[in-house]
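Incident review: delayed structure delivery

Summary: a single-chain prediction request sat in the queue longer than the usual turnaround. Root cause was a stuck worker, restarted by the on-call engineer. No data loss occurred. The affected request and its eventual output are reproduced below so the record is complete for anyone auditing the incident later.

Affected input:
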Amino acid sequence: MNHSFRKLIGISARVLLSRNQIESLRKTYSRFRERSINKNVKQEVIPKLEKLSTFINNNEESLLQDTINRIVAFMDRLKIPGKDFHYLYSENSKQPTIYASAYACMTLSLLGRLHVMPSDQKLRWMEYFNGYQNEADGLFYDPVIDTELFRTGDWWGARHLALHMIIAYTDLGGRPRYPFHFLEEYYDHSHLKNWLDRVDWTSAISHADDIDNQIMNIGCLLQYQRDTWNDERAGAAVAYLQKYLWDKINPETGMWGGYDPQDPDQRSRMVQFAYHLFPLFFYDRISIPYPDKVVDLVLMTQNELGGFGVKLNSSACEDIDSIDILIRLAPMVPNRKVEIDIALKKALLWVLCNQVDDGGFVFRLEEPFMFGHSNTSSEKNQGGMLPTWFRTLSLVYLINYLEIPNRFIITPCPGYEF
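Output delivered after worker restart:
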């Protein structure tokens, strides 16, 4: 069926069918598509899980080294020939981006490859990053991906990128050329309160609001501003933000919002929301209340294949959200150690199953992923820079927790890696 004919059918359907009928058709198609994806994922993953389970019990060192070698080869293929720091996001990308370069830097650091990089090369990589930073606000702008979404979004965009850039600079042993001046409006506690008061903290806060990513981006960058530039006003803003969020924790769940813990979709969303706010406490070593309730609910997000999502092809984000929380709260709930260990061993095998033929990792198996822009996107079962870094980070956390010998390196920094 050609594109024009499909378009004609779509137009005809909108004319002939009511809005409710169209919505019903969409839901039916969505259910059919999900069943089809689940079938494909099971067919592909279950044999892999069985093979990996046997292999990791007998030769975990060889498996780990092969995984690392494939990641490095993937990065090498996406590096622009003749350029030291220019990377494509995926083999689907047309132009290199600063996002891709940052993810390459962060991933290579986790794998210990930056540790042996000459100091002058690290300095040149930082200079490359500096070329994208705006002095006025401190944010980084890449003309290849500078769109309205880049300037307004928080799940992708300038503030989201900045939270990754501080990790890359930390990995390279330096800091950005300029402080993050855009944060200065948040030094005003009344402004902070007015911003946060717009959220209905008793509701099931949807993905569409994107407030959890925004709070993480701004809050963790304030922590970095506090520590890196000894900015006392940023520190005071962090303390205010922590107190405000602490008071909004739901004692029924230990997390935020009025989600229904018995609804799988709402439970998953609640955990994802909490993952974005917990680092503000974990990084400053502030213990959260109700860790037992949090662990109970996070364990419930694991599916039969070992991932942490309602869909069997759980995403890189869904997986690390639950993995990170379980690992950080495990010492606070020693009575749940056996259950947590079992869940994380299953998760390790699942994460490894998301490494695809090109050596990179996918956001979701069997699905393409548009990460904000066509130059930061990947096709179905094609590795991308974001999921390769995020799933590598999951592996590092899991392997360290399970005390499997390794040479991974985590350089502590506010936000995602500490």
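Verification: The CA atoms of residues 143 and 248 lie 39 Å apart.
Action items: add queue-age alerting; document worker restart procedure.
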